[in-house]
Design goal:
- The chain is 32% helix and 21% strand.
- By secondary structure, it is α/β, with parallel strands linked by helices.
- It has a domain at 289-406: NAD(P)-binding Rossmann-like Domain (Rossmann fold).
- The protein has a seven-stranded mixed β-sheet. It has a six-stranded mixed β-sheet with strand order 14-13-12-15-16-17. A four-stranded antiparallel β-sheet has the order 1-2-3-9.
- The chain starts with 9 loop residues before the first strand and ends with a strand.
Length: 407
């Protein structure tokens, strides 16, 4: 395989064995059927430094009509989206004569705040389950995968954008060049695009290997993004750091041919920070596998010790990252009895691979486990607040990444 952006050679970065797609939750009648498992290996380009999965699964098999990730489930993420809309309206003077397009609009978690302000908006979302949820919020949705062809059709329909938002989707696209070029097409001459994604530098420094799964085709740094954007008609003019998803970047871009936004000093500063960390050299990427294995070993040791001591462990949050952790560690329901999730679309289903049952929150009160393993560790504070009542029976909260912690 060659780099999906520049076609250069790749070097190994991480090998997590094999796993089913992390959002392919199972129904009861699927338990007596085989699952599709794909190799889960990641490499880094020696030229543009784009970290990327090897291609085994097609996007259509990963993002299907029953896609079960709904953004609006998380209150902290909703608050983040509302702050984003307020900030963009203020910074770029958006109003009733503007047009906002969100790519990967999911269930309308963000565009609902755009609509509340009376700003015309449109969502692009390929998964039927979340698109229907967005429509229920009164949001117009184009149910399709985004790329240059769709962007051209939208412009021809008079739907060019003053602002495009693309949160946590840039990593999800197999053809990253076509995807990015679509934004250069869709923007009005002075339009602005924003992209949020987990920062690769944080993934490596904090051993966040559980954010590696088949639905994430790419793992991104500003170094790689600036090159990809420049090759596809966009120029970066600002970057911000945010704590979401374990540490993310929000990158601001404009059309390279017509944009007039001044370049913030934060752009060269972040590029320098990445360069000084070693992200433009091969040695930086070589020690990641060993750190991944240490996290896995500590996690399995905890679960085995808990079982030996007669303690029960339940999971909270049937997150994709949790599936990566559980499947790489080879954990099954003998070590984690069940996982609780607030999303109705996941309840009464089973975790892919491990086949651990997913239940509603009442199961915690009934079972009163000794330990509650928080799988979406990036929401640890929010979840511990929601489950404070578990302290009444002495339950302790556990996270495995970046290091095993019991609180």
């Amino acid at each position: 395989m060659k780099c999906r952006h520049c076609g250069s050679a790749l070097q190994p970065f991480a090998d997590l064995g094999s796993a089913p797609p992390s959002n392919a939750y199972l129904t009861a009648h699927q338990l007596d059927r085989p699952e599709r498992w794909y190799p889960l290996r990641v490499a880094v380009c020696e030229t543009c430094w784009l970290v990327q999965t090897e291609d085994f699964a097609e996007a259509g098999a990963l993002f299907d009509a029953d896609y079960a990730y709904f953004s609006a489930i998380s209150k902290s993420w909703l608050a983040h989206a509302e702050r984003y809309v307020a900030g963009m309206v203020d910074r770029f003077g958006l109003g009733s004569d503007s047009h906002v397009v969100e790519v990967a609009a999911n269930d309308g978690y963000l565009l609902q705040y755009v609509r509340e302000r009376g700003i015309p908006c449109l969502g692009v979302e390929p998964t039927r389950s979340t698109a229907d949820a967005a429509r229920a919020r009164g949001i117009e949705i184009v149910e399709a995968f985004f790329g240059s062809d769709l962007a051209a059709r939208l412009v021809a329909q008079g739907k060019a954008a003053d602002l495009t938002a693309a949160n946590n989707v840039l990593a999800h696209v197999p053809d990253i060049n076509d995807f990015v070029s679509g934004f250069a097409t869709l923007l009005k001459p002075q339009g602005v695009s924003t992209f949020e994604f987990p920062h690769l530098m944080r993934l490596i420094s904090e051993r966040q290997f559980d954010t590696i799964y088949h639905e994430h085709f790419s793992y991104l740094s500003l170094t790689a993004i600036e090159r990809i954007f420049a090759a596809n008609g966009l120029s970066v003019f600002d970057v911000e750091e945010h704590p979401t998803h374990g540490g993310s970047l929000r990158v601001f871009a404009q059309r390279a041919d017509t944009g007039q936004q001044p370049v913030s000093e934060r752009v060269p500063a972040m590029l320098l920070q990445e360069r000084e960390a070693g992200m433009t050299g091969p040695e930086y990427y070589k020690g990641f596998q060993a750190s991944v294995d240490r996290v896995k070993d500590d996690f399995v040791r905890f679960l085995l010790d808990a079982r030996r001591d007669g303690k029960t462990v339940a999971g909270y949050g049937a997150a994709a990252k949790g599936n990566t952790l559980i499947n790489y560690a080879g954990v099954r329901s003998d070590l984690i009895a069940f996982v609780v999730d607030r999303a109705p679309a996941k309840q009464n289903k089973y975790m892919p691979g491990s086949r651990i049952p997913i239940l509603n929150e009442d199961a915690l009160r009934e079972a009163r486990p000794d330990y509650i393993l928080i799988l979406p560790w990036n929401l640890k504070t929010e979840i511990m607040g929601q489950l404070g009542y578990a302290r009444e029976w002495g339950a302790k909260f556990v996270t495995a990444v970046p290091t095993l912690e019991i609180a």
